[in-house]
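Try this one yourself first.
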C-alpha cells in the first residue's frame, strides 16, 4: 500500500518535519484502516481568512475552523460509489487545515503544535474514509478510533512532553 499525499502550504509556516510527521502518521493510519490499495489525497495548509471563506461557501458557517475535508468517495443515500479503474489509485479527497487555528488550539489544549497538526490531519483523514461525528454514537466511534491511532503512533495525549 502506498499513500500519496500532496501537501500545499499557502502559509509558509509548515516545516519539513511537520510534513514528515503527517505523512508517517497518515500512512500508519491507512495501514490500521486496512487500506491495501494505492491511495491519494491532498492537504492544504492555509490561514484563518482563507478557511473562513471556504467554511462560509460550503458549510454556511461564517467563521474560521480548524479542518475541513472534501471526500471524493462520498455518496448520497442510495448511491453506489464509483469503482476505481484498474491500475489507478484510490482518490480519497482533500483536507484543508488552518495553521492559525491549529496553533491557537495547541496552546489552548496545552500540547505541541506538531501534535495538533497531526491530530487535525488524522481527523480530516478519517472524514475522507467516511467517519463522522453527527450523532453521539458516530462521535464515540470516530474519536475512539482517532485516539487509538494517535496512541499507537506515539502522539497520544501527554506524549509530546506536555500534560
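Now uncover the answer:
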Amino acid at each position: 500500500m502506498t499513500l500519496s499525499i500532496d501537501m500545499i502550504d499557502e502559509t509558509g509556516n509548515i516545516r519539513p518535519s511537520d510534513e514528515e510527521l503527517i505523512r508517517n502518521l497518515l500512512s500508519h493510519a491507512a495501514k490500521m484502516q486496512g487500506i491495501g490499495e494505492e491511495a491519494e489525497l491532498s492537504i492544504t495548509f492555509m490561514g484563518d481568512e482563507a478557511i473562513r471563506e471556504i467554511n462560509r461557501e460550503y458549510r454556511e458557517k461564517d467563521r474560521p475552523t480548524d479542518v475541513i475535508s472534501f471526500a471524493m468517495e462520498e455518496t448520497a443515500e442510495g448511491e453506489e460509489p464509483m469503482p476505481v479503474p484498474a491500475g489507478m489509485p484510490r482518490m480519497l479527497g482533500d483536507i484543508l487545515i488552518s495553521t492559525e487555528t491549529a496553533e491557537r488550539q495547541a496552546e489552548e489544549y496545552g500540547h505541541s503544535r506538531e501534535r495538533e497538526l497531526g491530530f487535525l490531519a488524522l481527523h480530516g483523514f478519517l472524514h475522507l474514509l467516511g467517519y463522522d461525528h453527527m450523532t453521539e454514537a458516530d462521535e464515540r466511534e470516530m474519536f475512539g478510533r482517532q485516539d487509538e491511532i494517535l496512541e499507537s503512533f506515539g502522539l497520544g495525549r501527554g506524549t509530546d512532553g506536555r500534560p
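Discussion: The helical segments are 16-32, 48-59, 99-109, 113-128, 136-153. The beta strands are 3-9, 39-46, 67-71, 90-98.
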